Amino acid sequence: MRIGELATRTGVSVRSLRYYEEQGLLSSVRSASGQRHYREEQVERVAFLQRLYTAGLSSRTISELLPCVDAPSAAATDAALGRMAEERGRLSAHIAELVATRDALDRLVELAHLHRSTQPAPAPGCPLGDAAADTDAAADSGAGTGTGTGTGTGTTAESATDSAESGVPAGRGRHNALA
Question: I want to staple 139 with a disulfide (CB 3.0 to 4.6 A). Which of 24, 43, 144, 173 is the partner?
Answer without folding.
Answer: 144
